[in-house]
Amino acid sequence: MTVLKTSMRNFFAHKGRMALSGIAVVLSVAFVCGTLVFSDTMTTTFDKLFAATSADVTLSPKNAPEAGDEGPRTGRPESLPASAVARVEKADGVKSAEGAVTSDSVTVVDADNDNIGPSGGAPTLAGNWTKNDLRSMEITSGHAPRGPTDVMVDADTADKHDLKIGDELRTIAATGDFTARITGIATFKVTNPGATVVYFDTTTAQRELLGATGRFTHVSVTAASGVSDTQLKKNVAATLGADAAEFKIKTQKETADDNRESVSSFLDVMKYAMLGFAGIAFLVGIFLIINTFSMLVAQRTREIGLMRAIGSSRKQVNRSVLAEALLLGVVGSVVGVGVGVGLAVGLMKLMSGMGMELSTKDLTVSATTPVVGLLLGIVVTVLAAYLPARRAGKVSPMAALRDAGTPADGKAGALRAVIGLVLTAAGVVALYTAAEADKAKEGSLYLGLGVVTTLVGFVVIGPVLASFVVRVISAVLLRMFGPVGRMAERNALRNPRRTGATGAALMIGLALVACLSVVGSSMVASATDELDKSVGADFIVQGEQQITHQVEQRMKDTRHVAHTTRYKEVRADITTPDGKTDKGAGLSATDPTYVKDLRRETTAGTLSAAYGTDAMSVGEKFAEEHRLKVGDKVEVAFDDGRSGELKVAAITSEEGTLDRGAMYLNIKTVEKYVPAERMPLSDMVFAKAAEGKQDEAYAALKATLKTDPQYKVQDQTDFKETLKDQVGQMLNMVYGLLGLAIIVAILGVVNTLALSVVERTREIGLMRAIGLSRRQLRRMIRMESVVIALFGALLGLGLGMGWGATAQKLLALEGLKVLEIPWPTILTVFIGSAFVGLFAALVPAFRAGRMNVLNAIATE
């Protein structure tokens, strides 16, 4: 009880200092709990949606893709005959059965030709309005579509794009364009995560989306009262008899589970990525907590010594410090759980701004979330305080007679330096091994080992590095400020262990920033270099949907365009002479002009020969694996088509990244084996301008596709900028998440300076008494902060660039051979670190400047 009272007294006596460490615990726990609440809320949202939209039993074509899988590349979904509806209705236990049409291969634009589809990755769904839709939606304005000129739209999309009844919408599908006016608006009964949904009457949906009437994509079956979904499924299968094998029959639960599985991978990636960044914040928070308790123990040396002198044992002193840490962990974790829920709500608002709608009505806080947050916060805080507590227990009673802090352990310091050097050397060896690896998979293991080992090594050896690096930084930056600068340098060097730990907290976040910057810049530079070397086409056209035949023809007829080249992906099973079959292999079917649009090196044969009748090319790696040579023949069984024997006419090099390992053949060869109605649409179209007419052709192509906002015309400059923007957006998102760790690190600098000011109260009073002005005092503390921040920045940026350069060596094995160091980013971060130091010193410097000189001198 005495230990607890002492701990409580000390905790509240230093509540201001504890608050900064508490913020680190709060932020770390909040990020973990916020991530769990956010991911659980998304899961709940999708679960409700899938349960509401799934019929009791659903009948679909056998070859229909599973939820989340890629559908047919023809632009038209798989369908079944309308006669299936009548057959299913005859099954026992069926209350009703209705045919439904659904397609996500559409683009819908308003009267201003603006795409009303979502921008956040959710689909645009078009179909017919059925009774099953009443499970999840209700018509809140107007009426359902009754004819070919009617369309109904969901309320979320209507609100977002200011649509109202009477407005005209144009739907672009593989079969062509058609227009209709809004006659109704339907509102979701559950949360719509962001999809745009439009409804037509059944005949229009069949004709325009499937290309034929009398067909449906699926049949929704409703069970009669008292009939379970499982029994209904059996009854439907029995009624269909032998023909049941031609269909997929699923209960509501099976359909919902399949849909849930289709989004689970996306949700898991987001969840674990965010938890990873939370882990980094926890790691940085550990340094802050260790520093806080180390300094508190040092400042209470006399107190601890007196406790020992009057009979307190080492265990009691140890427990006293750990009890303070426990109290800090409990308070910080409880607050962190609450802040985490608020953070989850903020993330939901952010995602809504990006196109994924999430409602706070579905906010899900599972019982495990606060438990995980509390356990992590408390355990991490107590573990971080263990070393300072152990050190406190070693304070002897004689320390009560001295003003010195905890005695330094020379042997421990030397051992620390040796361990740090060994770990750093081992990490460097691992990174070198990764850079010299012949295979990316093997090298990545050494890269991960090298990253972890060098990071730990730098943390351990931090105090040794601080003694050297701080002197170098001071010589460059502080000496010009005279005595004030020299005092700032000495203050930073006074306790290298403290400086090293504070700088290490900032080092971790900046190391990851530098590493990812190098990797991102190298990827962009490599891709840009590859484009310059390999792409001969002037323009690339691609978009959210595959390119329809009508658009292809219009592009081909565009003025100033010398030729266009279609690029289609075809799936097939390839059986090689060695008897092995590569199932579901992707073949690149293009027009013969592709050899002009993309320059590919070959190791055998010529690529133009691959565009002959019943010919193809294979990649060098595929040829080596199956011992193929030019002239060999392979059996190709095309999906949705016939099998044919094709001759290997060329073997392409594995150099470069564009179309690496691709197998080419002429579109006409594919047309020979695949029926026209099953022929895939083009994924992209390349275009070459007439000689000297690049600008005119560019403008003409844009004009041609003006009415098709789902497609984008890009010249090589545009394509490079798009690539750069995509990588930049990804990095900015990562930087934002790493920002939490950097904020915690800044708090560490603030905490270190604040406690350092308290520790040096008497010293500050004496300096003020002999003539040091308040302005000089504040400047000294700010300079000390800047030096510590720059020390952490130098270590972090140097370490991160080393990691990034090693990672690029592995990427070079995949064709990304250009190493580019983003010096503007690196220099910006380094200079920004100086401002971070200045910002972190504002409050401690202000408080130091306000000290009463006489009271400071009288401080024990």
TrEMBL record:
<keyword id="KW-0472">Membrane</keyword>
<feature type="region of interest" description="Disordered">
    <location>
        <begin position="59"/>
        <end position="126"/>
    </location>
</feature>
<feature type="transmembrane region" description="Helical">
    <location>
        <begin position="733"/>
        <end position="758"/>
    </location>
</feature>
<feature type="transmembrane region" description="Helical">
    <location>
        <begin position="272"/>
        <end position="298"/>
    </location>
</feature>
<protein>
    <submittedName>
        <fullName>Membrane protein</fullName>
    </submittedName>
</protein>
<feature type="transmembrane region" description="Helical">
    <location>
        <begin position="825"/>
        <end position="846"/>
    </location>
</feature>
<dbReference type="Pfam" id="PF02687">
    <property type="entry name" value="FtsX"/>
</dbReference>
<feature type="domain" description="ABC3 transporter permease C-terminal">
    <location>
        <begin position="737"/>
        <end position="852"/>
    </location>
</feature>
<dbReference type="InterPro" id="IPR050250">
    <property type="entry name" value="Macrolide_Exporter_MacB"/>
</dbReference>
<feature type="compositionally biased region" description="Low complexity">
    <location>
        <begin position="100"/>
        <end position="110"/>
    </location>
</feature>
<feature type="transmembrane region" description="Helical">
    <location>
        <begin position="785"/>
        <end position="805"/>
    </location>
</feature>
<keyword id="KW-0812">Transmembrane</keyword>
<dbReference type="InterPro" id="IPR003838">
    <property type="entry name" value="ABC3_permease_C"/>
</dbReference>
<keyword id="KW-1003">Cell membrane</keyword>
<dbReference type="Pfam" id="PF12704">
    <property type="entry name" value="MacB_PCD"/>
</dbReference>
<feature type="transmembrane region" description="Helical">
    <location>
        <begin position="499"/>
        <end position="519"/>
    </location>
</feature>
<comment type="similarity">
    <text>Belongs to the ABC-4 integral membrane protein family.</text>
</comment>
<dbReference type="GO" id="GO:0005886">
    <property type="term" value="C:plasma membrane"/>
</dbReference>
<feature type="domain" description="ABC3 transporter permease C-terminal">
    <location>
        <begin position="277"/>
        <end position="397"/>
    </location>
</feature>
<feature type="transmembrane region" description="Helical">
    <location>
        <begin position="414"/>
        <end position="435"/>
    </location>
</feature>
<feature type="transmembrane region" description="Helical">
    <location>
        <begin position="321"/>
        <end position="347"/>
    </location>
</feature>
<feature type="domain" description="MacB-like periplasmic core">
    <location>
        <begin position="502"/>
        <end position="700"/>
    </location>
</feature>
<feature type="transmembrane region" description="Helical">
    <location>
        <begin position="455"/>
        <end position="478"/>
    </location>
</feature>
<feature type="domain" description="MacB-like periplasmic core">
    <location>
        <begin position="20"/>
        <end position="237"/>
    </location>
</feature>
<dbReference type="GO" id="GO:0022857">
    <property type="term" value="F:transmembrane transporter activity"/>
</dbReference>
<keyword id="KW-1133">Transmembrane helix</keyword>
<dbReference type="InterPro" id="IPR025857">
    <property type="entry name" value="MacB_PCD"/>
</dbReference>
<feature type="transmembrane region" description="Helical">
    <location>
        <begin position="367"/>
        <end position="389"/>
    </location>
</feature>
